[in-house]
Design goal:
alpha/beta; five-stranded mixed sheet; 22% strand
């Protein structure tokens, strides 16, 4: 494939056509007339040797190839957008830009909220958009990172991409404040017999695998897609949950739970900001990374004060 012969404007047209599934609406979306968008669709059909949009009754539906291209085109568009908005200089006090960060709700609550406060104070034109980490993060990390500005995630889950360390955390257990069967300490027997609330994402497996190596098989009663819900689903029940210490401190009073250390040497957490190498030398991204490190240092210093 000779990329020099391709018209990159077709990427814009392709995305609009696949998402709108209507030539007229796609043209209005990108500022092209209906004949011009029809001509773009004809060129795309010749290139892919496929109809892409097939008329069914009074509307269009995506062909099998069109469905495959739907997600790929969106990713390609975002990569091109980031490529052509790269800057040699960046002044946070005057620039207007959105940074998209992929993160769990834990990372947003513990770190992202403070990052947003600092950005609000120092860079009023900067917008932050936090997107929930997809379950497929370990399967196609490169594609995810290429279409975002960064990923907040602990070490030990992904590798092979640049990262900067932010802060350390540790695993703790939470049980109801008035739990009738748990005293001042948890035992391994408690963990084996009590019902659990767990975070259901697959990349949390390292903590679960550690329990398996100790011969503990959690009896999962509830699984949720949010770390912040774990303390709330433990309060007033016999359940137990494994959460990050920083998050547990935030929710201990609100959820009426007790925070207890693990009855074993739990693997520590080191949260990091990961990014795609294409962003490494971009001035705006350098500002983002430096600000993230500065915010993390502030959090650590406040904790030690």
């Amino acid at each position: 494939m000779n990329l020099a012969r391709l018209d990159l404007n077709l990427v814009v047209a392709l995305r609009a056509l696949l998402e709108e599934r209507n030539v007229t609406r796609a043209g209005q979306r990108v500022g092209l007339s209906q004949p011009a968008m029809s001509a773009a669709l004809a060129r795309l059909r010749r290139h892919f040797d496929d109809d892409l949009l097939a008329r069914v009754g009074g509307h269009y539906e995506l062909t099998a190839l069109g469905q495959v291209l739907l997600d790929r085109t969106s990713t390609a568009y975002e990569v091109l957008e980031r490529l052509f908005t790269s800057q040699a200089d960046f002044d946070p006090s005057t620039e207007s830009r959105e940074f998209r960060l992929v993160a769990s709700d834990y990372a947003v609550a513990v770190f992202g909220a403070e990052l947003a406060r600092v950005a609000h104070e120092e860079a009023p034109g900067i917008r932050l958009r936090f997107t929930q980490t997809p379950p497929s993060v370990t399967e196609d990390t490169g594609t995810l990172l290429s279409a975002t500005d960064g990923l907040l995630m602990p070490h030990g889950v992904i590798s092979g991409f640049p990262a900067t360390d932010l802060y350390d955390d540790r695993w703790v257990f939470v049980v109801a404040q008035d739990h009738p069967e748990v005293g001042d300490r948890l035992t391994r027997q408690d963990l084996a017999r009590l019902p659990w609330v767990t975070y259901q994402r697959t990349y949390d497996a390292p903590a679960v695998r550690q329990l398996g190596m100790l011969g503990i098989e959690p009896r999962v009663e509830i699984s949720v897609d949010s770390f912040q819900l774990l303390p709330l689903l433990v309060a007033g029940t016999r359940r137990v949950a494994l959460v990050q210490a920083r998050l547990a401190r935030l929710f201990a009073a609100v959820a009426s739970v007790r925070v207890l250390p693990p009855p074993y040497e739990a693997v520590p957490l080191r949260e990091a900001l990961w990014w795609h190498p294409v962003h490494t030398h971009d001035a705006a991204h350098i500002w983002l990374r430096e600000t993230a490190v500065r915010v993390a240092a502030r959090l650590v210093a406040a904790e030690g004060a």
